[in-house]
Design goal:
The chain is of the alpha+beta class. The protein has two domains: 90 residues, SH3 type barrels, CATH 2.30.30.180; 43 residues. It has four helices and six strands, in the order H-E-E-E-E-E-H-H-E-H. A hairpin with a 4-residue loop joins strand 1 and strand 2.
Length: 165
């Protein structure tokens, strides 16, 4: 019984755990005026990962700024031929978690029909919440490397006079 109570108490935390995105990623309203690149997570065939702001992509490599929030900003490159998987976040996820308990509670007003409407309402609000969390991201299955360039800080490639420090 203790385990069930603990899981039920931690359920809101677990449901919002996937809603995280870096602070420099814009809100939905500000996508078109954002001077930064999207947040890119790259995995190579050996399972090594790199993540950070997408700076540029050329025909041979991807350049990302690792951990732009710290003073130790470093540029990291990965050869395109070694990329196995990637995921791009280009805007903050929308959090609809609050709808699950609220709309489930509203089914009390349905009387005896709540036996039917509660599961439908619960499934629908969970589906909307999951959709909001994944709405502003792409994976390698959904976007090509050519199209991924649109979300880089420098979509035309690294400037010639760019200083890596």
């Amino acid at each position: 019984m203790k385990n069930k109570t603990l899981v039920f108490a931690l359920l809101p935390l677990l449901m919002t755990a996937g809603c995280w995105a870096p602070g420099y990623i814009p809100e939905v309203e500000d996508i078109d005026v954002n001077p930064y690149g999207g947040y890119l997570e790259i995995t190579n065939a050996q399972g090594q990962t790199a993540e950070g702001e997408l700076i540029a992509i050329d025909d041979e490599k991807v350049t990302i700024l690792v951990d732009p929030a710290t003073p130790k900003e470093t540029l990291r490159t990965m050869a395109i031929e070694h990329m196995y998987r990637y995921r791009l976040h280009y805007a903050q996820p929308v959090d609809y978690t609050w709808t699950i308990p609220l709309f489930s509670l509203f089914t009390i007003t349905h009387g005896w029909f709540l036996v039917l409407t509660f599961p439908v309402n619960l499934i629908t609000t969970i589906a909307v919440t999951v959709g909001g969390e994944t709405a502003f991201r792409y994976t390698e299955k959904e976007i090509s490397l050519q199209d991924l360039r649109m979300f880089a800080r420098f979509p035309q490639g690294m400037p010639e006079n760019f200083m890596r420090k």
